Amino acid sequence: MTGSAEQHPGCKTADMPVFWMFLPRHGAVWRKGTRVVSVRISTILLSTFLVLSACDSPEEQISKLYESGLELLEAGEPQKASLQFRNILEINDSFVPARMGLARIAEQQGDAARMAAELRAVIELDPAHFEARGMLARLLLSAGHPAEALDHAETALKLAPDDRNARLARGGALIALGETTRSLADANVLLALDPTDPDAGLLLVADRIAAGDIPGGLAVTERFMKAHPSYPALNQIKLRLLAANGNLTAMARHLETMSARAPEDLTLLAALADVYNWAGRIAEAEQTFRRVRALEPDNPAHLQTLVRYILVTRGIEDARAELLAEIERAAVPFGTERMLAEFDRQTGHTDAAVSRLEALIASATDSADANTARVQLAQTHLGENRLDATFKLAEDVIAEDARHVTALALRAAVLAEREQPEAAVTDLRLALAEEPDNIGLLQLAARVYRRNGNWNLAGESLAKAVQLSGYRTDTVLAYATLLGQSDQVAAAATLLSTAVAYHPGDLQILTLLARVRLMASDLDGARALLPQIAARDQAMAARLRASIDLEAGQGDRLGILQALAADEGGEGLTAALVSAHVESGQITEANALLDGILAKTPQDPEALQLKGGLALVQENRAEAERYFRAAIAAGPTHIPAQLALLGFLVGDDRREEGMVALDTAIEASPENAVLWLRKAEMELAGGNPEGALTAYETLYQLEPGSLIAANNVASVLSEYWPDDPERLERAYALGKRLSGAANPAFQDTYGWILYLRGDYEGALRSLVPAVEALEGNPWVQYHVGMAYAALDQVGKARTHLEAALALAGDNAFKPREAAETALAQLGLGE
Question: If pLDDT is split at 50, 70 and 90, which confidence band does 2 have?
Fold first, then answer.
């Protein structure tokens, strides 16, 4: 072939020389008789195909490609068929049959999103395409969008009254929208054509379910299954109806029949194992889990499922023995060894897990295996808060594989804990470049961004995690919490409302949405959620209803709480009831309530503590102390009693005894954040900032994700050691976490740290909104006054510094002298 136009009738000669001119130069490289073919050859061959194809008219090319696509589809080669249809769209993106071909391929492959996109494109090109509308209507119905499905189905039926897809979709949509009479009319039209039509039968079953007639639904299902015993949808609906009846024996029998028809269907076997388990048929459930494993022996998930089941039903030793036996059987037991290490970690045998993983690392002959074990060991250490060991292992992996996603994430987690958020962000960006849609990475990135004070990036990361996860509960709750902390209550409500549409039965999301609406004074919106919540947790719904009624001022507080206690047996409501009685002046009734509890349970620490509170109300201090101490003796870890005694002793000017009581309480509950918070406050009140810092640091270690804990440490460091560079730097590292928060106390802390670092304008950006919200706080007035003074804004500086001194009055005020000196200097400068 020379490339002359004569050999290609109808082709333009101008297209040819460019192709041939580059072939010898880039097509191959010859070395010592061996030809090394360049990757450009594939491009050239493709170019040849395109040049040759160009000899046909576009219509002829489309016709050939479409015929080829249909043949490939009929031959069971959807990928190749898809390529032909897409080649058509490169020539003419308005060719409807190619898009319909792609829609059918997507349907075969279970890709609903792609199928919907292609069908919508068809309808946009040809609004009268009834087949596409009918298919899209059924797809929308299955996705939970009955109103839109109904629109498309009715349009299709106007165009083609006999279209079966459209009629089925309309019937199903009408059932979903509560219009059962019209739905049954559609079913009867189809049954007139085929009395055994299984899909029409499903409409009849759906009508019975909507009416709450489960036995009737079962009867209809059985009638249609006589003609279609293997029809999947009928089998599935029968299973649902049997489950609704709670008939485990019948469910097991039905699943056994289904599984006999498809003995290698893992989904059916897993469902059968679950039903056996619910029915208490433990041996049969375990045997079925073993059948699942036998069908896919190389799938570790099946072994994990089996081991978890043995753990629950037979205990740790038998479950561990199963893993050990598998290790003995396996030719290459590396994966099972890792599984055993994780099992040991989860069952509290962390040292055994660490030893096994260290042995795997030492014996690994493959570097990838060694790194896999290192990562798992690092995760184990991180779970035990062994940051140095975690960091070292992550570094070892990264040294061999600089883009190892999990190792980068582990190192980032440690860097964040070490208050090095910038370095953590660098690692996370590298990891996200490799796996931008990794939900776990996005969640970790959000936490790190928050620690670095970048709330916008944290929000973007969580928003993406929510979308990618399909509004998974943990991602939704994390994002809603962030929005709430940023004072974006309306946005949080919108997010949660969308999440409820995805997961209408999720109690956590429903409850949080109700509370957010309550917070936003949307009482009607909160009340509208109560039926859904009550269907899952009646006690929770009752509490929320009481909160809504109280907020709305409907009924007296005592009456609402008494009604709630009657519904719930009073559990958890004792303190609220006592408080309501006291507010109503019903001290005798409050005492009677508590005496009744103590008559049944004399050592109830809550009732004893509340008796002490009532004694205080009646000004019987000796009696109050006796009850508080009795409550602590009955429940040494009952924190309200500990705090009540502490408050009592401090109120009696018995500070030293209060400190002893507080230390005793901390010894009994060393991980209680509230006790450490009170410890810090007591130390500060006693003039011991070092002691307060130690308490705040302990609190921060207990709750490293808490902005309050970070704020307290940063505040003490900046207020008491403003001239210590090392401590000020730590305050700044912690303070950056507060920079985007709407909380005025956090704004004050961060603004003051910026002032101490010499960033006076940045300080004012944070301090001005803080002082507007906390104008009665002398410390905040002092801080903003000093920032204005540093910028020579004399009038504003004087106003705020004078306000600080006036608000402090004769009380102890540490920066009094500094404020007075600054005012004097302002005076000299005038």
Answer: very low
- E strand intervals along 310-457: none
Q: Is 118 helix (H, G, I), strand (E, B) or coil?
A: helix
Structure tokens at 629: 């101490």
Nearest CA among 801, 777, 780 for reference residue 789: 801
Alpha-carbon distance of 581 to 593, in angstroms, equals 10
Distance, CA of 393 to CA of 413 (rounded, Å):
13
* pLDDT tens column, 470-482: 889 999 999 998 8
Return d(Cα 493, Cα 471) in angstroms, integer. 14
Residue owning tokens 């207020």: 719
Is residue 38 very low, low, confident or very high in pLDDT (cuts 50, 70, 90)? Answer: very low
Distances (CA, A) of 810 to 782, 783, 807, 814: 16, 19, 9, 12
Q: Which of 398, 424, 400, 399 is nearest to 413 (CA)?
A: 424
Tell me the C-alpha distance between 504 and 510, whole Å: 8
- The structure tokens 């709480």 sit at 561
Dihedrals phi, psi of 811, to nearest 5 degrees = -75, 160
Q: The tokens of 504 are what? A: 């209408």
Amino acid of residue 772? E
- Cα separation, 727 vs 452, in Å, equals 18
Rounded CA separation 572/606 (Å): 10
Distance of CA 68 to the CA centre of its chain: 46
Cα atoms in the 13 Å half-sphere on the side-chain side of 812: 4
Query: How is residue 766 written in tokens?
Result: 């944070």
The Cα–Cα gap between 240 and 232 comes to: 12
Give DSSP secondary structure letters for 686-746. TT-HHHHHHHHHHHHHH-TT-HHHHHHHHHHHHHH-TT-HHHHHHHHHHHGGGTT---HHH
In terms of Cα–Cα distance, which of 11, 5, 97 is closest to 50?
Answer: 11
Q: CA-CA distance, 754 to 763, in Å (whole number)? A: 5
Q: Dihedrals φ, ψ of 795, to 5°?
A: -60, -45
- Distance, CA of 638 to CA of 672 (rounded, Å): 11
Output the six-digit token pair for 72: 């490939």
Query: Contacts from 489-497 at CB under 8 Å and sequence distance 24+?
Result: 489/516, 489/519, 489/520, 490/520, 492/516, 493/517, 493/520, 493/522, 493/525, 495/466
Q: Are 11 and 5 in contact (CB under 8 A)?
A: yes
- Of 377, 374, 451, 384, give the one whose Cα is nearest residue 412: 451
Q: Which residues contact 317 (CB under 8 A, 6 or more apart)?
A: none
Residue in 299, 315, 298 with CA at minimum distance from that of residue 307: 315
Residue among 550, 549, 544 at smallest CA distance from 529: 544
Compute the distance between CA of residue 750 and CA of residue 737 in angstroms, rounded to an integer: 9
Closest CA to 468 of 493, 496, 436, 507: 436
Confidence class for position 589, pLDDT limits 50, 70, 90 = confident
Hunting for tokens 């009918």 — which residue is that?
Answer: 134
What is the token pair recorded at 463? 């928003």
pLDDT in tens, 257-266: 998 988 888 8
